[in-house]
Amino acid sequence: MKSSNPHWKRRALAGIATLSALAGNHWASAQELPSREEMWAIIQQQQAEIEALKERVGMTEGTLQETQQAISIASEQVEATASFVEEVVADTGSGAASPRSKTSIGGYGELHYNFGKKDQADFHRWVLFFGHEFNDRVRMFSEVELEHSIAGDGQPGEVELEQAFIEFDLNETDKLKAGLFLLPVGILNETHEPATFYGVERNNVEKNIIPTTWWEGGLAYTHQNASGWAFDAAAHSGLYVPTSGSKAFNIRSGRQKVGEAEASDGAITTRATYSGLPGMQFGVTAQYQGDLAQGTLAETADATLLSAHADIQRGGFGLRALYARWDIGGALAGVNGADEQFGYYIEPSYRFATETGDWGLFARYSVYDTFAGDDTDSEDSFFDLGVNYWPIDNVVFKADVQFTDYADSSKNEEIVNLGVGYHF
After folding, report:
1. What is the dihedral of CA 177, 183, 188, 194, to 10 degrees?
2. What's the pTM?
3. Would you say residue 1 has pLDDT above 50?
4. How many Cβ atoms sit within 10 Å of the Cβ of residue 232?
5. Concatenated DSSP letters of 128-188
6. Is-contact 51 57, C-beta < 8 A?
7. Residue-wise DSSP of 365-409
8. Mind giving me the DSSP string for 238-268?
């Protein structure tokens, strides 16, 4: 008899083993099933967890809505800020600077002590500048000055508007100016901050003949090119001199300072300067006015001013020189010799640096005559010696002595002057 099939045996043994394993698992599972109470507790716990999850989801949705609202508000604010910045850029013509950065403020001041026949202390000038650039081509400049510290009825000082004009760039070399401006004449009339010149007081020639500080209202044109040449031409209000008394045809007394000024006869001023050499400037000025008396006389007192100057600074050595002359028409001006008026000065100097600042020594000889049209000796001359000390370029301490030689010798004196000044 043939023996039994071994494959069949292996299948039988495998089936027995599987059944045994299933039986074992069923027994083990039956032993681990929770009771009904445990199942109920599990269900309640799971239900509580579900409710908690629902609540958290609800809170998250609320927070999300609040966040979306905050983002929306922030976006509106950002858009508003961007629109404002765009408007500012459009108004200024450039995004490089804000309007405030285009406004400039400056000024200067000077205190004087004078010891001569009369000793006195005087805060002579306190000045503020205000300027503003509307864009790259158009700008405004103004200057307000308080003289002699205090102004008002019976007080020695006065408040003055010395500059207030609008300037337009026509191109890179040409400009127009309209308003109230300093006339282009002499050395000190346009640049007179105390740290820029020698001597406590300004020289008598530019004070009485130019007459510095001299401003008028009108229109001015300037051309300046790279060769060093510059040309100015201005049409403006004119002088209105007294025609009788001790000040008859006195040029300085004819300044109206553009305050409800008589404007029947205006004036024209032209100037040419050359600054093509380092440290040097040479200039000439011519002015003509049809009638200094502004139509108040039966005759006309036409007037011509001619001046020339040199301002040289080479290394420590400096030299300033100026000549100015008035010729006035009409018979009345010639009665006392006021039809010719002139003045000149020469001022050598030397400036050197030290560890504590710069020092400068100067001497000046000056002459002027406001009645030079006759044979009477009316010439006044002055000799000044002095020192400037600059601890920094914008601050100066000054001391000088002036020896006078008046045509009227009874007025002669020696004056010691002390001063301090600044500009910014």
Report:
1. -50
2. 0.76
3. no
4. 22
5. EEEEEESSSSEEEEEEEEEESS-BSTT-SBEEEEEEEEEEEESSSSEEEEEEEEE-S-TTT
6. no
7. EEEEES-TTSSS---EEEEEEEEEEEEETTEEEEEEEEEEE-SSG
8. ------SSTTTT-TGGG--TTSS---SS-EE
Over residues 170-187, the pLDDT tens digits come to 999 999 999 999 999 999
Residue 301 · residue 265 · CB < 8 Å: no
**Cα–Cα distance measured from residue 262 to residue 241, given in angstroms and rounded to the nearest whole number:** 11
CA distances from 252 to 34, 106, 141, 207 (A): 121, 27, 25, 8
Average pLDDT on 305-326 reads 98
Nearest alpha-carbon partner for 423 in 250, 242, 208, 192: 192
Run of H or E including 210? none
pLDDT surpasses 70 at 15:
no
Sign of CA dihedral 153, 179, 328, 410: positive
Closest to 168 in 3D by CA, of 219, 92, 232, 107 = 219
Q: How far is CA 416 from CA 197, 284, 346, 366, in A?
A: 17, 33, 20, 17
Nearest-angstrom CA–CA distance, 130 and 141: 6
Q: Name the nearest CA neighbour of 272 among 313, 221, 314.
A: 221
Q: Which residue has the tokens 């001497």?
A: 363
Conformation bin of residue 42: beta by default, left when phi > 0, alpha when psi is -120 to 50: alpha
d(CA 368, CA 212): 14
Strand, helix or coil for residue 5 = coil
